[in-house]
Design goal:
This protein has 5 helices and 42 strands. It is globular.
């Protein structure tokens, strides 16, 4: 369904409400006041010499943003390949060819929490943190390896939590309900309490949350309704001790568990029978929002983190020690019966007829466990005198991380009627791996004048990896085989250079040249390819020019960046021909480039009205042919919209003596392409996905600054935008698509005390 109400019409309707001027617009955060820690120092956002978006707590609450999909609407150049609640690939500035290693790092405060290696599908392993009681989310675009290490070659998402406050007792809670069109209704509850003690020298802050997302996909085979609901539960506790002005100690524990009953796939016409000549209606849903499967495509993510950060102020410098340990376990199960071995021949039918003697086919499931257990230690020393007090600001440090990861993949064949496990076993793989990263870094800013300075950074990184593959009997891999331990070692130096000219107090012009890299590693051996070569690191170089200014006494703000990224030795997941057929291995193939412009514009015509327009134009393409991907020079990179933009209109005022606030957002996502594939006889490769537009809106009443009551709607126009697509993989030789969630309406009651 297309949205028929234009943004202009909605704006006029909103402006026509009987507001009286005078209420302070609480959700409008002046750029002058937004402090970020992108450079591991506190710095005003308007002064940072790189492309950065800080989505503040006020904006997160106003728009009811709760996850990565919501974040894409408020951050230029950020896109996702959304498969389900457990698997989402983060893409910044178009850096994606479908490889298994992450190109975007994620951190929680000073805790690096992402998979640095590519041994266990790390590209889909980034933490997706509930946003309740966050101070802000910082998104840094372009390579961040100088300060944040390997695998931050595309950018960084930094979740910044609220520190415990030793000066006051504080608390808040939110309760509410969500209802999805054509689906069910679910509730949520979130709470926070901050308790100071020890005569203002300590505080404990505790957060808890439980969210359920309504399901809306039905299963016509089993009769089950709303099978794709998601439940997220968790919390964190943070203890802050400040025994003296010089010493600060903060200990934090965090846990979040996400459980999805099924994925979000919906059966569409697809092109399973004719991948080389797909029908024009391939994106059309066959039977509404439905998915017919005999086996739930479920997933469960269990994230646990503990951290200790100690700061000691020596006067001229501060010593920081940041120690953390975390576990992120992902367990999911998939019905792969309907994936095609050849056009018109599914794996379920092939195994049923050729191996198990069941002409009606078998139920073939792929169960997978991925985990990363990650220890981090960083020590850094930073100067305290900055800007006018010193010509030179600096920080130096060392970093160590150790990851223990595993990829466990058992495949099981079952009778489609009784679900009994069939013999002989299909086969399984168990691939444990270890990753060690050691690095030293330095960053300095020299102030030539009060208005002009240059920041330079360098980082040397050494990476060692080990991996072993254990294959289980019988059909896929033959007799059980344990391969020798495979290893790799590599080192890399990354650097950045950023001149910055502060034209006046409200205007900044900067340039940034930065490099990043992603580690390579050992490959997964199989009987047809028992000794595959290691894959190599890839690297990026980012050229960027940015301009920020505020005009009309701060009522207008402009933030624009132009960039170009050269990406070399691009890591791919390709196919290698063998006597037993093609085998998928990690490799490197050629180069790619991404260039474009990003903008974030805001206008506050009155104290009660804020209008923002943000977006990006991204031209991301291969520079050379990539035979292992079946891709060619000039092909656009997958899941990167050429254009994307969001119009935000936020307002407040009074109605009948009550404070009222609200707004709406119109988000437009342009044409994107699916992933590459050399298997053109089975899979229609590099499919163009149509553009789409969604509308979100919210309206609330504030009762004296203590209680709030809000109603809100997401995807108000019930747009069926396509987030992911496969031309085969559903029953009856059809395809599947992941659509934007249907119209969801919510109500929330909040309180502060």
């Amino acid at each position: 369904m297309k949205i028929t109400t234009t943004p202009l019409r909605v704006a006029l309707l909103a402006a026509g409400l009987p507001f009286s001027i005078g209420t302070v617009f609480a959700a409008a955060n002046d750029v002058d006041e937004v402090v970020v820690t992108a450079t591991k120092r506190e710095e005003l956002l308007k002064d940072v010499a790189m492309s950065i978006t800080a989505v503040t707590a006020a904006d997160l609450e106003l728009r009811h943003d709760s996850g990565l999909q919501d974040l894409t609407e408020q951050v230029p150049g950020l896109s996702l390949q959304s498969i389900d609640a457990g698997k989402t690939r983060i893409v910044i500035r178009g850096q994606n060819v479908g490889s298994v290693g992450a190109t975007v790092a994620t951190t929680i405060d000073d805790i690096p929490f992402f998979m640095s290696s590519a041994q266990s599908n790390g590209a889909f392993f980034s933490a997706n943190i509930d946003s309740f009681d966050l101070a802000r989310i910082e998104v840094l675009r372009g390579p961040q390896g100088t300060l944040y290490g390997a695998s931050a070659e595309g950018g960084l998402i930094k979740y910044v939590t609220n520190r415990p406050d030793p000066t006051k007792f504080d608390g808040a809670f939110r309760v509410g309900m969500l209802s999805t069109s054509g689906g069910d209704s679910k509730g949520f509850a979130k709470g926070m309490i901050n308790v100071p003690f020890w005569d203002g020298k300590a505080a404990l802050r505790v957060v808890a949350f439980s969210n359920e997302t309504p399901g809306y996909v039905d299963n016509p085979l089993t009769g089950a309704k709303n099978i794709n609901g998601v439940k997220v539960q968790g919390g964190r506790a943070s203890l802050l001790l400040q025994p003296s002005d010089a010493l600060s100690i903060r200990a934090t524990v965090f846990a979040q568990k996400t459980k999805a009953d099924n994925n979000n796939n919906v059966e569409v016409v697809g092109a399973a029978l004719t991948p080389a000549a797909p029908p024009n209606n391939k994106f059309d849903a066959i039977d509404g929002m439905s998915q017919g499967t005999l086996w739930n495509n479920s997933n469960e993510i269990d994230l646990k983190v503990g951290a200790l950060t100690i700061d000691y102020d020596f006067g001229d410098m501060t010593l920081t020690s940041a120690t953390s340990y975390g576990k992120n376990d992902l367990v999911f199960s998939s019905d792969i019966s309907n994936l095609n071995l050849a056009a018109g021949l599914s794996y379920g039918d092939f195994f049923g007829g050729a191996i198990y003697g069941q002409p009606a086919g078998v139920l073939l499931t792929g169960n997978e466990t991925n985990f990363v257990h990650k220890f981090n230690q960083e020590i850094r020393l930073s100067s305290n005198k900055r800007g006018e007090d010193s010509k030179l600001d600096w920080q130096v440090g060392g970093f160590f991380t150790r990851e223990s990861v595993a990829l466990i993949q058992p495949y099981v064949a079952r009778n489609k009627t009784t679900l009994a496990v069939l013999a002989p076993p299909v086969g399984d793989a168990n691939i444990p791996a270890n990753y060690k990263e050691r690095s030293a870094f330095a960053d300095a800013t020299y102030h030539f004048t009060d208005s002009f300075d240059v920041e330079a950074g360098v980082r040397y990184t050494k990476v060692d990896q080990q991996q072993q593959t254990v294959l289980g009997c019988c059909i896929i891999y033959g007799p059980g085989t344990t391969y020798p331990v495979r290893d790799s070692a590599e080192s890399k130096t990354t650097w950045s250079l950023a001149p910055r000219w502060k034209i006046n107090e409200d205007t900044l012009l900067y340039a940034r040249l930065a490099t990043g890299f992603r580690p390579g590693g050992p490959n997964f051996p199989t009987p047809p390819l028992p000794d595959p070569p290691n894959f190599l690191p890839d690297s990026t170089k980012n050229y960027e020019v940015g301009f920020r200014t505020q005009l009309a006494d701060g009522k207008v703000s402009i933030d624009v960046a132009v960039f170009k990224i050269d990406w070399k030795d691009v890591q791919i997941l390709g196919l290698v021909p063998t006597e037993n057929g093609p085998i998928g291995v990690n490799g490197n193939s050629g180069s790619a480039t991404s260039q474009g412009v990003e903008w974030n514009l805001a206008w506050r015509p009155t104290e009660n009205l804020r209008i923002g327009y943000l977006g990006a134009y991204t031209d991301a393409k291969l520079k050379t042919d990539a035979a292992g991907l079946g891709a060619f020079k000039g092909d656009e990179l997958p899941y990167v919209p050429r254009t994307s933009s969001t119009l935000n209109v936020d307002f407040n005022g009074t109605v009948a003596g009550k404070a009222v606030f609200g707004g709406f957002s119109v988000n437009s996502v342009g044409k994107r392409y699916t992933g590459f594939s050399p298997s053109v006889a089975v899979i229609e490769p590099h499919v163009a996905l149509p553009s789409y537009t969604t509308l979100n809106a919210q309206l609330g009443v504030d009762f004296g600054g203590r209680y709030t009551l809000e109603v809100f709607a997401q995807n108000l126009g019930n747009e069926t935008g396509i987030l992911d697509y496969g031309n085969n993989g559903s029953r009856l030789q059809r395809g599947y698509a992941v659509f934007t969630a249907p119209r969801t309406v919510g109500v929330q009651f909040g309180a502060k005390f």
